[in-house]
Amino acid sequence: MYITAVGILVLTLGAVFVVRSFGSSSGADGFLGGSKPCDDPTQIQLATTPEMQPAIDAATKSLTAKGGKDGNPCLQFTISAAPSAQVARDVAHGSDTRPDLWIPDSSLWVAQADDGQTVPNIAVASIATSPLVLVGRRTNFADTSSWLRSLAGASPALLDPLNTSPGALTLLSVQVERQKTSASDTQVSQVIVPMAQRLGSMAKPYTDVSALFGRADQDGSTTVVPASEQSFVKYQDAHPDTQLKAIQPATGTLTLDYPIVVTAKSDTDQADQAAKALGGELMSDASAQARDQAGFRDTSLSALSGGRGVGDVSQLTKPTSEAIDSTLQNWTRLSLSTHSLAVVDVSGSMAEKVGAKTRMQLTVEAATSGLNLFPDTAKLGLWTFSTQIGPDKADYKQLVPIAPLSKVQRGKIVGQLKIQQPIPGGGTGLYDTAIAAVRQVRQQYDQSAVNTILLFTDGKNDDPGSPTLAQAVRTLQGLQDPSRPVRIIALGMGPEANADELSALAQATGGQAYVARNPGDLKGVFIDALQSR
């Protein structure tokens, strides 16, 4: 009887212990008592940027363990790690994987996550920070007075701006620092356009910052990498012999700010409370040392311990959501590959001198220099035009067919440009040439590229046998297919260029016209034209 009673008592106590142990998501405090455990914790799906996941794991475990005690909420977290841009797209597109809470590496992605019904709400402005820095070998930092000059003086390897915060913040830094530098559109374009063309032509954009650091670390490398200070500090930890250094341009920098965002479709109040509780845990004194060791700064941007990173930083003005949208859309347009036909005026007036050089020489210089803006994967061909210079007395002549800009193709185009001479007495057969050029590009249309005609001229149409301007415009409009656009980018030069005429032709195709009254400005106008394509 005694054995039976003892056995029942042991079984009863064991059952109590099991119930109490498994009845709490925090692990409970078992048979010996303590505060009441969480019997029904609120389930929170949380997505975070990968580099922040270890800190989030630790904080959520600590917060869960406190559940039901001292007024702490009962919470249970399921955590996933994904790039911020990917989560933003998932939320915006109404994906089934939409989390309740989201910790992106930058608040710039929050506006990109608007699904048109529920605007994500930032519950905690920031749980950590990391300034954008420029990483490279010391020899590659000759001019660090601005982001623009720093990038222009080296070979920038830019992380994909459409999918990474360091890439997007780099473009935004170049734009917002103009409040201090007064850099012109042309100066910015001279750096951004070739970078966009080069990176846009890659089969796979850069997304692995450690791999880029490795490239920049090689002897003789001219590569510089815009990146978060945190990623650089972790690279230093793993590569103590690295020759890389991080700098902040003198104009200042933008920062990755790691907000906690409520992305829940329903029960947003519960998600908001969970976000605030998690934010408090992450910003507690207990989390400060771990945050610093992981390479993150606090929300005040205090310098990292031990002299790591770039020390004190100054901040650039935070860009607006409109500026973010505009910058990313501009990059999308610029990074598309090019399928173009350059059409150069060789009429008699091109022999006129501007200073020591003829208009023809200035045009050739601008076109030759412009070739350097295009990557090898771009496709480009060359025509010249003047009245009755081609087969069957056409006003245009094909010199180099459109093809990828290999070394051979570049050589052909440059070689042909250099031997061109204005035709004495030759007129400007502008209308027929514009129509023929659009037809030619349409025949070879490249669906994956921007299809354009780059039309260089110093005058206006003076071919008596050509259609009228109104007829030419109607013909060009009739050739247009919205799903397969072919645009004329007209580049006029000199006082005789008819801006109205060029604009009419360009706008009939959805393109634009630019006129450099001083032909010496043609190179800058050419870059502006590419910027607007």
Which spans have pLDDT < 50 for at least 5 consecutive residues? 1-36
Q: What is the overall shape?
A: elongated
Strand content: 15-25%
Q: Determine the structural class based on helices, strands and strand pairing.
A: alpha/beta
What's the tally of helices?
Answer: 18
**What gyration radius follows from the Cα positions, in whole Å?**
31 Å
Strand order of the largest sheet: 15-14-11-16-17-18
Overall mean pLDDT score?
A: 88
Please summarize the sheet with the most strands: 6 strands, mixed
Number of strands: 18
Percent of residues in helices comes to: 25-40%
End-to-end Cα distance, whole Å, is: 95 Å
Brief descriptors of the model:
alpha/beta, disordered N terminus, 18 strands, 39% helix, 18 helices
Topology:
Layout: H1 2-22, E1 42-48, H2 53-65, E2 75-81, H3 84-92, E3 101-103, E4 121-124, E5 130-137, H4 147-152, E6 155-156, H5 165-176, H6 178-181, H7 185-200, H8 209-216, E7 223-228, H9 229-238, E8 244-247, E9 255-256, E10 260-262, H10 268-282, H11 285-293, H12 321-335, E11 337-345, E12 353-354, E13 357-358, H13 359-371, E14 379-385, E15 396-404, H14 407-419, H15 430-443, E16 449-457, H16 469-479, E17 487-493, H17 499-507, E18 512-516, H18 522-531
Parallel strand pairs: 1-2, 1-3, 6-7, 11-14, 11-16, 16-17, 17-18
Antiparallel strand pairs: 3-10, 4-10, 5-7, 5-8, 5-9, 12-13, 14-15
Helix pairs in contact: 2-10, 5-12, 7-12, 7-18, 13-14, 13-18, 15-16
